[in-house]
Every structure is written in structure tokens, then in C-alpha cells.
Amino acid sequence: MVLSINDQVTLVEVLVILLGIAITWAVYYGSDRAELPGTAPVPDPSIPDDMTSDTRGRSFS
Q1: How far apart are the first and last CA of the chain?
Q2: For 7, which of 3, 34, 37, 49 could close a Cys bridge (C-beta 3.0–4.6 Å)?
Q3: Residue 31, SS3 per DSSP
Q4: pLDDT at 20
Q5: Would you give per-residue pLDDT tens digits along the chain (61 residues)?
């Protein structure tokens, strides 16, 4: 099957549009569950803060 130049250009255009839709979906899928600034849960004030730092995996001492 041989496609003409116009058919090839049209095919590429359609594929690029579909790729753009797929990338947009991949970026925004599940973004409604993202923790945005100002929407982080407020910690319970009756629970004291953890006073020790977790330094596992860090190279600086």
C-alpha cells in the first residue's frame, strides 16, 4: 500500500493530534487527588510534633 504525500501528511497530523491528547491525559490523570498548597491536611494540635529528624539515606552528617 503506497500513500501519497498528502495522505502521509494527513496521517502524521492525525497521529500528532492523538499523541497530544494522550500526553495531556497522562499529565492530568489523577491530578484532582494532588495535594496542592493550601489544601494540605491540618495536623491535630493534640498530637505533639516528632522532635527527631529522619536522616536515613542522607550523605551529610
Answers
A1: 66
A2: 3
A3: helix
A4: 96
A5: 789 999 999 999 999 999 999 999 998 887 777 767 776 677 788 988 877 777 676 565 5
pLDDT for the residue numbered 19: 97
Identify the three-state secondary structure at position 36.
Answer: coil
* Whole-number Å distance between alpha carbons of 55 and 53: 6
Distance of alpha carbon 4 from alpha carbon 23, whole angstroms: 28
Q: How far apart are CA 24 and CA 26, in angstroms?
A: 5
Q: Where are the beta strands (DSSP E) in 1-61?
A: none
Cell of 30: 489523577
The model's pTM is 0.52
21-28, Cβ contacts within 8 angstroms, sequence gap of 24 or more: none
